[in-house]
Amino acid sequence: MTLPKRAFPWQKWVLTIIMVLGLIWSAFITDAHMGKFFENFGEFTKIFVEMCQPDWSYTTYVFQPMIETIKMAVIGTLIGSVLAFPYALLVARNIVTNKVVVGVFRFILNIVRTIPDLMLAALFVAVVGIGPVAGVITLAIFTFGMVGKLFYEAVETIDPGPLEAVRAAGAGRLEIIRFAVLPQIANYFVSYVLYAFEINVRASTVLGYLGAGGIGVYLQQALSMFRYDRVGLMVLVIFIVVLLIDYTSGKMREALL
Amino acid sequence: MTEMKKLPAQPAQHRWPFWLGWAAVIVLIVWSFTGMPSFELKQNAVMVAKSMLDGLIHPDWSYVWTGDGEDLTNALLQTLGIAFLGTFISAIISLPFAFWAAHTKNKFWLTSRSGKFVLTAIRTFPEIVMALMFIKAVGPGSFAGVLAVGFHSVGMLAKLFSEAIENMDNGAGESVTAAGGTRLDVTILASLPQLLPEFVSNTLYRFELAIRSASILGMVGAGGVGTPLIFAIQTRSWPRVGIILIGIIIMVTAVDWLSGALRKRLV
């Protein structure tokens, strides 16, 4: 007995050829030379070894900016989520039935989501000046884009039963949201906000590189002075803080869902 | 219907951690606002914001294509190249890391724990710092960006790969063994067909994120569209900032859409 013959996998071949062509093209356009990398690998390891011997005396100086970084992340997450909540209801198809409204506001949300965080930071540093305020605004907008999408997707997956029941009982739009939508999604919302906070803590550590406050400012100074021992210390501190926050937030999210 | 039935009260023991949690959150928020410089719009800020908006509304269309290789199209293509090659490199590096971190493949628990720890460390290492280290090694330019994207992505990609390995169905592999297959047969006939679509899907997802990274790495000198953008912001030439932002938005949206469509067909 023989197995039936397989059809010639055109798609796979076409994709493979595209991949190979893309690889050659991207190596060409980015001027990639693996040889150059291995040649100068010593330089790279030298920096790495320097970073592995942190300048412990700098710890006390790092403490304050790290706190500022966390504060920036908290405020940014708060503002972004508070703005994202009504917006998410506005772009959820089962709450707002007007297709034009949903389409336009979703388009705006998608555009906000495409702009990388550091780019926003560079723009806001130019507007409000160097300092943590630029960082907070950046994180607020970044959170708005990220959480807004998660929020409206959660709203769209809710059970329509309670919605209809409350509407049948004569509830207005706000009452529908309060009694039928919120109880179903509140836990998801809190969980997403915590998730956004985790990402924001990571993001806020580098925003200062462009002048938007926090530990990134010190990171940039140390890097421009080639003090890799200090860079190593800061990376270590960032690592510990991020691990702690991820762990706590992860446990809280587990308890919620 | 004169008398309404009362709802039973919620059990009290479920409520106090709830309120405690909220109290902690409020304390955290209030604490965060202490020591923050007050938000005040200076006269200058309003002016800058106005001219920025003006520039964003009237973008510098002539920058899209000048033909001398220093234009937006070229910068965007370079960004695309950095993300593509970087993601490809990271996909290859991620494979061994993924098998290291997957707990179903390792009998000894410490092996996969240590693998997961290393991956978290790579994820947390700021990408900009990595880019600057590579710039030191290979000089400023796109190649440093490729290496930064390539090594930084391993942290996330290998984690996704290892999760795919952990969630793999063992049934197919067992049946190949039962039919007399060797370890190699199990890999080729059972593991690979299950893992490959998942791996490709994860890599595509990471590629979407790499496009975003590649477009900001240029701000520190690692090639791509970030370099002309930071120059335009520093010289306050907002029409140029506007056109670069539009270019990035179009590129990111197009890649997201394309990759999303491909991933939908895969999984």
Structure description:
The complex is a heterodimer of chains A (257) and B (267). Chain A is mostly helical and 257 residues long. Chain A has one domain (59-256): MetI-like (MetI-like fold). Helices cover 80% and strands 0% of the residues of chain A. Chain A has eleven helices and no strands. By secondary structure, chain B is mainly α. Chain B has one domain (54-266): MetI-like fold, CATH 1.10.3720.10. Chain B is built from ten helices and no strands. In chain B, helix 3 runs antiparallel to helix 8, helix 7 packs antiparallel against helix 8 (183-217) and helix 9 packs antiparallel against helix 10 (238-266). The longest helix of chain B is centred in the last third of the chain and has 35 residues, at 183-217. The N and C termini of chain B lie far apart (54 Å). Classes of the chains: A mainly alpha (257), B mainly alpha (267). At the A-B interface, helix 1, helix 3, helix 4, helix 5 and helix 6 of A face helix 1, helix 2, helix 3, helix 4 and helix 5 of B.
